[in-house]
C-alpha cells in the first residue's frame, strides 16, 4: 500500500513538473533531465508555486491539510508559495450517512435512534477528517430535545493518515539531506508539527475541551457565542454540539439585509481577537470565514475548535511591547524586546537588529495607520528574525495566521476599519494592568495564599538550618536570606497588611 502511494506521489511530482526544483542541483539535476525526456503528459504552463498547490490538491485531503499548515510558515517559505498554498480548500465529497451512524453506535455504545430523536443521514458539511450531521436529542419523555450538530470522524481515516505521514517524514528527510536550504527549512520539524496538529484533530474530545474553554472564557459575552458541548454524546470519534443558527460571515449582502451593523461587527472581530490573545492567552486559531457565523442579534458565532493557540505571559508581554513599539516606530525597543525575550542570541547587537527592523518596516508606515496590517507587521518581524537565527515559536505562527484572517474579515465587513484605532486602547490598557499598580495588586492576590503558608514556617526552617552540620553553607545561606529579606521587606509588610485586612473583614 505504501509503495503504491509512493509511486502516486512520484507520478504527481512528474505530471506537474515539480522536478523543476531539481534543476541545477549538483546531484539530482540528472533526474530533472531524465524526467524531461519521458513522453508522458505534463502540465508545466503555470507558475511553479501554483503547480505545487495543484499537486497537493491531486494527492488528496491529507496533503491539502499539510499545504494549509505549510502556508502559515511564512518564516520559512517565500511569499509567493505561502500565498498560493493559502488558497488550498479542505473540501472532499461526503461519505455515506449510514457509515456515520455505524461510527456513532460503535463509539458511543448505543443505537443512533436511542441517542437522537431525529438524525439526518445527509451531512450538512464535509471535510477531510470528519463530516457534520444535523440531529435532535431525545428528551427523557421521548419528546424532541435540543437541536444539535453531530461531527463524525471519517471511518478508516487513521491508517490513511499514518501512511501519508510516514511518507511525508521520509520525503522531509530527503529534502534536508539533498538540498542546500534543507536544514534551514526544517522539513522534519514541520512534518512533526503537522503530525501533532493532525492527531489532535483526530480526537474529538480534544476539540470538545477547546470549545468548552472558549465558551467559558466568553460566558455572557455581547460579542461572541460559543456552542455548548454535550459530553454524554461525545467521544474520541463523535462530537455533539449545540446547533447554531446564523448567517455565514462571508455573505455580506445577507448580513445587510438582516440589519446587522457591519461597522460594529468588524470592530467586534478585532476586540474578540485581542481579548483572546491578551486577556485569556487562549485563542481560536482557525477563524476563516467558513468557521464564523453571525447570529440574529449581531454577535459572532464560532465553530470548529480543532486548532487553538495558547500564549504564556512572556508571549503576551512580548507581543504587546512589540506592537506598541512598532506603531510608535520605536525600533530600538523592538530590538531590545527580542533580546530580552531570548528569541535572538544574547550577543546580538541591539543597534544591528534595530537597523534591520527599520529597513523592513519603514515602507509599511508610509501608509496611513488605518491601512496598516498587524499581520503584515508580524510577517515582517518573522522575516527579519530569520536573518538573526531566531527560532520562531509555533504559537506565534498560529497567531499571525489568525490575525491575517481577522484583518481580512474585518476589512471585508468595513473597508474603513482602523485596526490600530481599535487595538491601541486595548493594548495600552493591558500593558498598564501588567506593569502598573493593578498588576502589582493582582500579583499580591495571586501570591498571598503561598506567603500565608510560608511566613509562619520561616522561624522553624531557620532553626532547622542552624542546627545542621554544614556551617559554612548555612552562613552563606543566612546571608543570602538576609539580603533577600531586605529587598522584600516592603513587599512582605504590604502582604501582611492585606492579610490582616482580610482577617478583620472575616471576623467582622
From TrEMBL:
<feature type="binding site">
    <location>
        <begin position="124"/>
        <end position="132"/>
    </location>
    <ligand>
        <name>ATP</name>
    </ligand>
</feature>
<keyword id="KW-0830">Ubiquinone</keyword>
<dbReference type="InterPro" id="IPR011009">
    <property type="entry name" value="Kinase-like_dom_sf"/>
</dbReference>
<comment type="pathway">
    <text>Cofactor biosynthesis; ubiquinone biosynthesis [regulation].</text>
</comment>
<dbReference type="InterPro" id="IPR010232">
    <property type="entry name" value="UbiB"/>
</dbReference>
<dbReference type="InterPro" id="IPR004147">
    <property type="entry name" value="ABC1_dom"/>
</dbReference>
<protein>
    <recommendedName>
        <fullName>Probable protein kinase UbiB</fullName>
        <ecNumber>2.7.-.-</ecNumber>
    </recommendedName>
</protein>
<comment type="similarity">
    <text>Belongs to the ABC1 family. UbiB subfamily.</text>
</comment>
<keyword id="KW-0831">Ubiquinone biosynthesis</keyword>
<dbReference type="InterPro" id="IPR050154">
    <property type="entry name" value="UbiB_kinase"/>
</dbReference>
<keyword id="KW-1003">Cell membrane</keyword>
<comment type="function">
    <text>Is probably a protein kinase regulator of UbiI activity which is involved in aerobic coenzyme Q (ubiquinone) biosynthesis.</text>
</comment>
<dbReference type="InterPro" id="IPR000719">
    <property type="entry name" value="Prot_kinase_dom"/>
</dbReference>
<feature type="active site" description="Proton acceptor">
    <location>
        <position position="286"/>
    </location>
</feature>
<keyword id="KW-0997">Cell inner membrane</keyword>
<feature type="domain" description="Protein kinase">
    <location>
        <begin position="118"/>
        <end position="449"/>
    </location>
</feature>
<keyword id="KW-0472">Membrane</keyword>
<keyword id="KW-0808">Transferase</keyword>
<keyword id="KW-0547">Nucleotide-binding</keyword>
<dbReference type="InterPro" id="IPR045308">
    <property type="entry name" value="UbiB_bact"/>
</dbReference>
<keyword id="KW-0418">Kinase</keyword>
<keyword id="KW-0812">Transmembrane</keyword>
<dbReference type="Pfam" id="PF03109">
    <property type="entry name" value="ABC1"/>
</dbReference>
<feature type="binding site">
    <location>
        <position position="151"/>
    </location>
    <ligand>
        <name>ATP</name>
    </ligand>
</feature>
<keyword id="KW-1133">Transmembrane helix</keyword>
<keyword id="KW-0067">ATP-binding</keyword>
<feature type="transmembrane region" description="Helical">
    <location>
        <begin position="490"/>
        <end position="507"/>
    </location>
</feature>
<comment type="similarity">
    <text>Belongs to the protein kinase superfamily. ADCK protein kinase family.</text>
</comment>
Amino acid at each position: 500500500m505504501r509503495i503504491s502511494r509512493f509511486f502516486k506521489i512520484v507520478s504527481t511530482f512528474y505530471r506537474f513538473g515539480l522536478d523543476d526544483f531539481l534543476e541545477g542541483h549538483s546531484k539530482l539535476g540528472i533526474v530533472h533531465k531524465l524526467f524531461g525526456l519521458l513522453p508522458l503528459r505534463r502540465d508545466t504552463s503555470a507558475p511553479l508555486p501554483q503547480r505545487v498547490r495543484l499537486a497537493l490538491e491531486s494527492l488528496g485531503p491529507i496533503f491539502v491539510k499539510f499545504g494549509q499548515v505549510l502556508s502559515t510558515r511564512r518564516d520559512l517559505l517565500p511569499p509567493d508559495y505561502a500565498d498560493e498554498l493559502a488558497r488550498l480548500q479542505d473540501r472532499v465529497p461526503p461519505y455515506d450517512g449510514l457509515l456515520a451512524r455505524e461510527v456513532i453506535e460503535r463509539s458511543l455504545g448505543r443505537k443512533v435512534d436511542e441517542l437522537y430523536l431525529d438524525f439526518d443521514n445527509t451531512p450538512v458539511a464535509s471535510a477531510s477528517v470528519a463530516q457534520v450531521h444535523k440531529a435532535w436529542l431525545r428528551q427523557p419523555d421521548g419528546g424532541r430535545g435540543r437541536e444539535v450538530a453531530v461531527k463524525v470522524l471519517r471511518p478508516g481515516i487513521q491508517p490513511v493518515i499514518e501512511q501519508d505521514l510516514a511518507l511525508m517524514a521520509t520525503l522531509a528527510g530527503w529534502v534536508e539531506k539533498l538540498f542546500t536550504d534543507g536544514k534551514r527549512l526544517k522539513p522534519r520539524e514541520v512534518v512533526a508539527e503537522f503530525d501533532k496538529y493532525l492527531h489532535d484533530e483526530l480526537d474529538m474530545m480534544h476539540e470538545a475541551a477547546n470549545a468548552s474553554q472558549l465558551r467559558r472564557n466568553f460566558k455572557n459575552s455581547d460579542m461572541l457565542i460559543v456552542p455548548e458541548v454535550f459530553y454524554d454524546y461525545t467521544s474520541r470519534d463523535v462530537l455533539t454540539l449545540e446547533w447554531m443558527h446564523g448567517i455565514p460571515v462571508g455573505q455580506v449582502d445577507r448580513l445587510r439585509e438582516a440589519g446587522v451593523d457591519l461597522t460594529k461587527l468588524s470592530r467586534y472581530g478585532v476586540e474578540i481577537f485581542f481579548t483572546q490573545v491578551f486577556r485569556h492567552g487562549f485563542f481560536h486559531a482557525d477563524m476563516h470565514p467558513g468557521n464564523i457565523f453571525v447570529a440574529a442579534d449581531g454577535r459572532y458565532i464560532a465553530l470548529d475548535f480543532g486548532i487553538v493557540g495558547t500564549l504564556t505571559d512572556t508571549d503576551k508581554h512580548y507581543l504587546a511591547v512589540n506592537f506598541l513599539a512598532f506603531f510608535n516606530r520605536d525600533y530600538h525597543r523592538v530590538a531590545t524586546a527580542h533580546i530580552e525575550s531570548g528569541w535572538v542570541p544574547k550577543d546580538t547587537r541591539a543597534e544591528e537588529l534595530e537597523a534591520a527592523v527599520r529597513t523592513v518596516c519603514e515602507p509599511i508606515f508610509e501608509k496611513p495607520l488605518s491601512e496598516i496590517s498587524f499581520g503584515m507587521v508580524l510577517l515582517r518581524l518573522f522575516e527579519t528574525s530569520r536573518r538573526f537565527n531566531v527560532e520562531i515559536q509555533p504559537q506565534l505562527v498560529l497567531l499571525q495566521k489568525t490575525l491575517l484572517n481577522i484583518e481580512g474579515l474585518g476589512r471585508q465587513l468595513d473597508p474603513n476599519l482602523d485596526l490600530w484605532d481599535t487595538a491601541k486602547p486595548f493594548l495600552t490598557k493591558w500593558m498598564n494592568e501588567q506593569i502598573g499598580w493593578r498588576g502589582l495588586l493582582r500579583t499580591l492576590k495571586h501570591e498571598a495564599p503561598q506567603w500565608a503558608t510560608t511566613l509562619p514556617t520561616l522561624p522553624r526552617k531557620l532553626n532547622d538550618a542552624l542546627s545542621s552540620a554544614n556551617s559554612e553553607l548555612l552562613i552563606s545561606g543566612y546571608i543570602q536570606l538576609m539580603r533577600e529579606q531586605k529587598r522584600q521587606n516592603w513587599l512582605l509588610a504590604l502582604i501582611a497588611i492585606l492579610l490582616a485586612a482580610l482577617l478583620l473583614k472575616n471576623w467582622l
